[in-house]
Amino acid sequence: MALTPKLQALIEALRRLPGVGPKTAQRMALHLLERDRDAALMISRALAEAAEGIGECQQCHSLSETPVCEICEHPGRDRALLCVLESPIDLMAIEQTGGFSGLYFVLGGHLSPIDGVGPEDLGIDQLLDRLYQGEVQELVLATNPTVEGEATAHYIAEQLHDLDIKVSRIAHGVPVGGELEFVDGGTLAHALAGRRQLERGR
User: Fold this and answer.
1) What is this structure's pTM?
2) CA dist., res. 24 & res. 128, Å (int)
3) How sure is the predictor about 121, in pLDDT bands with cuts at 50, 70 and 90?
4) Is pLDDT at 173 greater than 80 in this prediction?
5) What pLDDT, in 10s, does the model give residues 67-80?
6) For 102, phi and psi rounded to 5 degrees?
7) Cα distance between residue 86 and residue 146, in whole Å
8) Candidates 3.40.1010.20, 3.40.50.720, 3.40.50.2300, 3.40.1360.10; correct CATH number of 63-197?
9) Is CATH 1.10.8.420 the classification given to domain 5-53?
10) Domain ranges in the chain?
11) Nearest residue to 99 via CA among 198, 196, 195
């Protein structure tokens, strides 16, 4: 079967999803067109609405449909406790454990000089401005336990040497080289409960 331009464009679009190769993308496209056009239209509408209606929270930089997300606005959250994460999916993973009552700051990635990603690309200046306001008493660095995640956590900790703030790092139960989104809830809750304070140079 020859691929028409529109079918090829659909397959290429599906290939942009994580973990989807050319064969899987082709099967998805053909399934939607041959067997479930209602689902194809539903997905199309949902994607368009999400792309247009979901932005970033002005405070934590996670995904939000409002200028400030529900977590940041919640009066019951502990505003003295701030958890730094790499992505919104990590925030979702921690929230699912029900074991964290503070607020979040989502970096949108990690430091990676080889890829040209520096502190200014992650909003670390905005994070530091928030910390210097004095409301946060403990900063939990929950970047992924990869080489880049560890480097990002240590970089942030080094910027706080003149602040009287506790800096901790999630530790127990999270495998080295792993991604938070793939860690089960019990392990992640244990990691948060057993976080350790980082030593900072002066």
Assistant:
1) 0.77
2) 43
3) confident
4) no
5) 999 999 999 999 99
6) -90, -160
7) 11
8) 3.40.1360.10
9) yes
10) 5-53, 63-197
11) 195
